[in-house]
Design a protein that fits this description.
Number of strands: 19
CATH architecture of the largest domain: 3-Layer(bba) Sandwich
Helix content: 25-40%
Oligomer: single chain
CATH superfamily of the largest domain: FAD/NAD(P)-binding domain
Number of helices: 13
Largest sheet: 6 strands, mixed
Distance between the termini: 44 Å
Radius of gyration: 22 Å
Length: 458
């Protein structure tokens, strides 16, 4: 492994690593980006492209007054490459920012391989460089050899949780006489296909799901799942009607054949701009492949479905970040090493690339001998960093961006703004203003531009 002290070594060509590489390269800093594929693949990746999306193809909602929208807005302000490319590769998905995953990965790969300050190395990294700035962004599928080195470096046991992928079906095999186009409450247009179920059809599906054979997990006696991405069958075990209040929620939808709201609805989201495949929203699963075909073909509209990809289970790796990382993603034991992406303790595509962008900015601050100043706590990015560094290390699990991570509005503002959505909109305005001020730097007179007065720090 070649190491140049003047280069920044970024290990991992996923969302976080790619965003970090771009941010540094655009500032004239030489980057050596290490990606082990295709020499060594993973159980989830299918191609050798950078920034390949292996789970969903959506970067969550872009609806105003939501925390995911705020995070994307902050990244737009910060000049995120990946958010810009995501918008260029957008496919219909209601209020969600969903992308054609092949085009997305192709454009990210082209941008980085064509940049004069980026050198792409197709090689597995099995040891952490002993000198120079390093960003570890190997993601949830870190290779065992490097995971061992990370375990030694952090001085803490590694943590694992299981994640699962949703199946994808061939669009031509969906029965359009049953599946109807619509979005819940008409938000964003008729961008989803909806497979409606009567109570009897749902009961038949539920019983088959509960009786289906699953893939055995070998790493632990008891599997641990991320709550935000539970396998379908794990959710179903919590009660017969649980799915009807989760991924199969029928509210805001009317079956045009009956004019009534179905008992349950399976939603399908477009995978690419050609609209030749759809994924089953919320159908992460660890069922055996033959069982998936049998059970999922019980869904009305999918009785003849052909599967482009079947669901699968894989192991995710992350470190106990509050026990070993500082406020700027730096390893306390070796501050030249920073972590970004899911391995740093965030969950989600946008959250991952946000930490990559932030890690790069911290490297720039360090190299310019500037004070390392994280983004304001009231911003989405600042709240993510606060969560990573300041959570309880005794009970740490990765998290998505939510308003629960952001400081609450102060009592006066909360009393004035009774409506919850209006309060969230106010939080978004204050957070975005503070983050924008951080990106721009202090005012020439040194005054503080962050509008924190209306926020209760917490």
């Amino acid at each position: 492994m070649r190491v140049d002290r003047d280069e920044v070594n970024i290990i991992g060509g996923g969302l976080a690593g790619c965003e970090a590489a771009w941010q540094l390269a655009e500032r004239g800093i030489s980057v050596r980006l290490w990606e082990m594929r295709p020499k060594r693949s993973t159980e989830a990746h299918k191609t050798d492209r950078l920034a390949e999306l292996v789970c969903s193809n959506t970067l969550k909602t872009d609806e105003p007054a939501t925390a995911p929208h705020l995070l994307k807005q902050e990244l737009r302000v910060a000049g995120s490459l990946l958010i810009r490319i995501a918008e260029e590769c957008r496919v219909p998905a209601g209020t969600a920012l969903a992308v054609d995953r092949d085009r997305f990965a192709e454009q990210v790969t082209a941008a980085l391989t064509g940049h004069p300050h980026v050198t792409l190395e197709r090689e597995e990294v099995t040891r952490i460089p002993a000198r120079g700035d390093v960003i570890i962004a190997t993601g949830p599928l870190t290779s065992p050899a490097l995971a061992d080195r990370i375990g030694e470096l952090t001085g803490h046991d590694r943590l694992f949780f299981y994640d699962a992928l949703s199946p994808i079906v061939d669009a031509e095999t969906i029965d359009r006489a049953i599946a109807f186009p619509a979005a819940r409450y008409g938000k964003g247009g008729d961008d989803y296909l909806n497979c409606p179920m009567t109570a009897e059809e749902y009961d038949r599906f539920y019983d088959a799901l509960m009786g289906a054979e699953q893939v055995a997990l070998h790493d632990f006696d008891q599997a641990r799942y991320f709550e935000g991405c539970l396998p379908l069958e794990e959710m179903a075990r919590r009660g017969r009607e649980t799915l009807c209040y989760g991924p199969l929620k029928p509210v805001g939808l009317t079956d045009p054949r009956t004019g009534k709201r179905p008992h349950a609805v399976v939603q399908l989201r477009q995978e690419n701009l050609m609209a030749d495949s759809y994924n089953l929203v919320g159908f992460q699963t660890q069922l055996k492949w033959g069982e998936q075909k049998r059970v999922f073909r019980l869904i009305p509209g999918l009785q003849n479905a052909e599967f482009v990809r079947l669901g699968q289970i894989h192991r995710n790796t992350y470190i106990n970040s509050p026990a070993c990382l500082g406020d700027a993603l730096e390893l306390r034991a070796d501050p030249r090493v920073r972590f970004a992406g899911q391995i740093s303790g965030v969950e989600g595509y946008v959250e991952s690339l946000a930490t990559g962008l932030l890690a790069a900015r911290f490297v720039v601050q360090s190299r310019n001998r500037l004070p390392i100043v994280p983004p304001p706590r009231i911003s989405a990015c600042g709240s993510l960093l606060h969560f990573i560094a300041r959570s309880d290390p005794g009970d740490f699990q990765p998290a998505n961006i939510t308003f629960a991570l952001l400081p609450r509005l102060g009592a006066d503002a909360k009393n004035r703004i009774r409506n919850k959505r209006d309060r969230h909109q106010k939080q978004v305005e204050l957070a975005l203003a503070a983050f924008t001020a951080w990106i721009m730097g202090p005012a020439p007179d040194g005054s503080n531009l962050s509008p924190i007065a209306a926020i209760e720090e917490g």
